[in-house]
Design goal:
The complex is a heterodimer.
Chain A lengths: L5 E10 L2 E11 L4 E5 L6 H8 L7 E6 L2 E3 L2 H7 L2 E4 L11 H7 L11 H14 L15 H13 L5 E5 L7 H16 L3 E6 L2 H7 L2 E6 L2 E8 L5 H9 L6 H6 L23 E9 L12 E6 L2 E6 L6 H9 L6 E6 L2 E2 L5 H6 L2 E4 L3 H5 L6 H11 L10 H14 L16 H12 L6 E5 L7 H16 L3 E5 L3 H7 L2 E6 L2 E7 L4 H9 L4
Parallel strand pairs in A: 3-8, 3-9, 6-7, 7-8, 13-18, 13-19, 16-17, 17-18
Antiparallel strand pairs in A: 1-2, 1-4, 4-5, 9-10, 11-12, 11-14, 14-15, 19-20
Chain B lengths: L1 H25 L7 H19 L2 H25 L4 H24 L5 E2 L13 H4 L3 H19 L1 H11 L1 H6 L4 H25 L4 E2 L7 H11 L4 H24 L6 H23 L7 H5 L2
Antiparallel strand pairs in B: 1-2
Helix pairs in contact in B: 1-6, 1-9, 1-10, 1-11, 2-3, 2-4, 2-9, 2-10, 3-4, 3-9, 6-7, 10-11, 10-12, 11-12
The chains are: A alpha/beta, B mainly alpha.
């Protein structure tokens, strides 16, 4: 038996009191493609970072090719272990060549002219088949190219083990295939690849062995992927106590199944009148990516519309324009039949607009403020209370009742929002936004980073709002999620709405539209 | 020629301090303590020059004192995880108050301290302003070039930049954040100390409390205006220096035409206007993200 490329020997990682990895021992054979799988928070990224030397374990040891590594990143890299991070660890102000150079461990070229730097790395990029100019600033590059650059950076040294953290999460569907081809090529050239994934379908497609973590514990240990059924696999990831159907959808098995409505949900009701309308709206670019480019969109009552697109193609602008946080330089925004183009957020809220923002911790909640204030913000700044007086005692009582009704796990309405887990924090936002007056609900990435139970909870809440006659706009980077819950999907590309299709969905066509290939 | 030399003389401390702020900014630490370091450098240089008449020793000790203070800053910011902006303001206050205390402790009374010796003036064979330029003022453009080379043309400089730009990226490729910040602040301490020396021993040969007069913050404004690119930052600092020079010139040559107090305000007004204009042109500074700085 050959010496393992990487061995984790009884690794434990703690963040404060929280045990992220609990006595995990696993050995990865050389020259194969290994998948490291688990739900959000299962510890897979943490374990990957331990192997790469970025996170120091509280106990246990990592061995590379049979020898212990304890000297952090530099020693791990010297032993040929390289990691590519999910959101790419590339300094945005740099050019491609600068980003490749700064972390380089080569002895030559510590001092350079711009021309020699670019020439040296251009030659490397050409050799490895990455089509990008070495002098291009990183902030101008599309996501797929950034990923290629990041992988090229990792391979620039003498990499023997390449760790990819959720490499598919940021890619449009047709780019995933190209990535997998590259991974196989690397394996054929002798590199051991460890891929962190969470979608069963992708795991079964690419991986030769599968390792599953659940809540920091090892569940499956480098099992050959051929020996697994999707069903048994999903059970290993989730734990058998959970229900089957919806979880399968969350894990990305759904695509293989016909797009049926989930049990217990009536088929989409007849769609009602238009509740919100964007008419040829153009808005300026922002830090969140492209602005809108003559985007038109009708949102009907009783309808859930999904917004698909590679991140940075106008999703942020769409939310901000609807909320009135970003001006529409041309076009008209209507809510409940009234022209709201130049009205503020409060007037829009008064007409039923509700927002579940992209980042619940910074935009959705004031993390230092108590729960009751977070819940009662619209009541305090809105119109219902008279003369600007805040009746704290009454609001506390109402908040307690509302949060309990929404199944938020909390001990006191006075505890700060920061003390809640992701799922509970999102429930506070749902309790606030999905009130009786909600008629146009904009949900931006509402399930990102949540565990399966909480994802399901958010879906149910949005479906319920839709069935009670509201219009829901769901923005998600997870195409499977959109296909599962939406009645209609629009695709944004460079701020324009390039595709608008109703269920049942053709995922391939949507994926093509996301990247600008002919729809 | 006179004007160029006068502007360089007026701008040299600003440019050097701005280079110090730039090195720190590149590693992700907003350096608001530049003025404090300049004051310390200025005081130490004048006191040592007065007592020993040895200019070289004065420069060396002033730079050492400023660098030591920078390393204390580093220890407080990186070691104790203090907010760099608060620490910077503290260092500023310490520079203003501590130098007064030092003067009183040494000489028993407040007031201006005069040194008999000043920095060498290599061009003294020339008449007028160029002849009065100190060695540090003359070297300033070369120091800017050196900072540019180190920051933009070496792997070391790229690593400093990566630390401020994307701390996690830097850390995950094996760059030590504390060490990079020690370099940034330490080298910055040397340059800010030189700025103080030039301020006190360049044209004047004296130290008085408050002579720094907000130059540290002007230099910091130049760092922001120049978006941490050495050449652009140096140009911004030179511009502020030119305005300062013009204010002084107008005080002397335009008495009765414009109120002198208005002229004294001029550099600060220009700094505010310049920062506002660039902020609105460039959009709000995204690098103001303090949480990112806590990483590592």
């Amino acid at each position: 038996m050959p010496v393992s490329a990487v061995t984790c020997d009884n690794i434990t990682v703690k963040f404060g009191d929280f045990v992220a990895i609990d006595r995990v021992s696993v050995a990865f054979e050389p020259g194969r493609i290994h998948a490291l799988v688990g739900q959000n928070g299962a510890g897979k990224t943490t374990l990957a970072r331990v192997v790469a030397g970025i996170v120091a374990p509280a106990a246990g040891q990592v061995l590379v090719a049979g020898a212990g590594v304890s000297g952090g990143v530099l020693e791990a890299r010297a032993r040929g272990v390289e990691m590519v991070h999910q959101s790419f660890a590339l300094p945005p102000s740099m050019t491609v060549a600068e980003a490749l150079e700064y972390g380089s461990t080569r002895r030559v070229g510590r001092i350079f002219s711009r021309r020699s730097l670019n020439a040296r790395w251009q030659e490397y990029l050409d050799r490895t088949g990455v089509t990008v100019s070495a002098g291009a600033p990183l902030r101008d590059l599309p996501i797929e190219t950034l990923q290629a650059v990041e992988i090229a950076r990792a391979l620039a040294g003498d990499a023997k083990v390449l760790i990819l953290d959720e490499p598919t999460a940021v890619l449009p569907p047709n780019a995933v295939g190209r990535l997998f081809d590259n991974i196989r090529r690397l394996r054929d050239s002798g590199v051991t690849v460890i891929v962190v994934l969470h979608k069963v379908r992708e795991v079964l497609e690419i991986a030769e062995t599968v390792t599953v973590l659940r809540r920091g514990e090892l569940i499956l240990d480098t099992v050959p992927s051929g020996s697994l059924t999707p069903r048994g696999f999903a059970d290993a990831i989730i734990g058998s106590e959970n229900s089957a159907e919806d979880d399968a959808a969350v894990l990305g098995l759904a695509e293989a199944m016909p797009p049926v409505a989930v049990a217990g949900t009536p088929a989409p009701s007849q769609r009602g009148p238009v509740l919100a309308r964007l008419d040829a709206v153009t808005s300026p670019d922002s830090s969140g990516g492209a602005g809108l480019r003559t985007a038109s969109l009708d949102l009907h009552a009783g309808e859930m519309v999904g917004v698909a697109g590679v991140e940075g193609n106008g999703q942020v602008a769409l939310v901000e324009v609807l909320a009135g946080l970003s001006p529409a330089s041309r076009g008209v925004v209507e809510i409940s039949g009234e022209d709201m183009t130049h009205r503020g957020l409060l007037e829009r809220r008064a007409r039923g607009l509700r927002i579940i923002p992209f980042d619940r911790n910074t935009q959705g909640l004031s993390s230092a403020s108590p729960l009751w204030q977070n819940w009662a913000t619209p009541l305090m700044v809105g119109s219902r209370r008279r003369r600007g007086m805040v009746r704290a005692a009454q609001l506390r009582r109402e908040a307690t009742a509302a949060l309990e009704a929404w199944d938020v796990r909390f001990t006191s309405v006075n505890q700060p929002a920061a003390s809640l887990s992701g799922g509970n924090a999102q429930k506070v936002i749902l309790a606030r936004e999905l009130d009786d007056g909600a008629s146009v609900i904009v949900a931006a990435q509402p399930t990102r980073g949540l565990d399966l139970g909480a994802v399901e909870f958010v879906w149910r809440a949005l479906r319920k709002s839709r069935e009670s006659g509201a219009s829901v706009l769901l923005i998600s980077s997870d195409l499977d999620e959109l296909a599962e819950v939406c009645d209609r999907i629009v695709v944004v590309l460079g701020g324009a709405v390039v595709l608008d299709v109703a269920a049942p969905f053709d995922i391939g066509r949507i994926g093509a539209a996301m990247t600008g290939a002919a729809a | 020629m006179d004007v160029f030399a006068s502007v360089l003389q007026s701008a040299a401390p600003l440019i050097l301090a701005a280079m110090a702020g730039l090195l720190s900014q590149r590693t992700g630490i907003w350096h608001l303590g530049l003025g404090g370091l300049m004051s310390i450098g200025a005081m130490v240089s004048v006191v040592v020059a007065k007592e020993t008449s040895n200019v070289t020793l004065a420069v060396v000790l002033a730079v050492t004192a400023s660098m030591a203070m920078s390393i204390v800053m580093w220890a407080v910011i990186v070691g104790l995880r203090a907010n760099p902006i608060i620490v910077g303001i503290g260092v500023n206050a310490l520079g203003a108050g501590g130098t007064i205390l030092g003067i009183v402790a040494l000489y028993g009374k407040e007031g201006t301290v005069y040194s008999d010796v000043v920095l060498p003036r290599p061009l003294s064979f020339l008449d007028g302003a160029p002849g009065r330029l100190s060695i540090i003022a003359i070297l300033t453009p070369f120091i800017v070039a050196a900072v540019w080379f180190v920051v933009c043309r070496t792997r070391f400089g790229l690593r400093l930049t990566a630390v401020g730009d994307h701390p996690f990226a830097a850390r995950s490729s094996g760059v030590s954040l504390p060490r990079a910040r020690l370099w940034g602040l330490g080298l910055g301490g040397v340059l800010a100390g030189l700025a103080g020396v030039e301020l006190a021993l360049g044209p004047l040969g004296s130290f008085s409390s408050g002579m720094e007069a907000g130059r540290g913050l002007m230099a910091f404004a130049a760092v922001i205006l120049g978006a941490t690119h050495p050449i652009v930052v140096a140009l911004a600092a030179t511009f502020f220096g030119a305005v300062t020079y013009f204010g002084i010139w107008a005080q002397i040559n335009m008495v009765g035409v414009i109120d002198t107090n208005l002229m004294l305000m001029l550099p600060y007004v220009v700094v505010i206007v310049a920062v506002v204009i660039t902020a609105s042109v460039r959009g709000s500074a995204k690098s103001a993200n303090l949480s990112e700085l806590r990483e590592g």
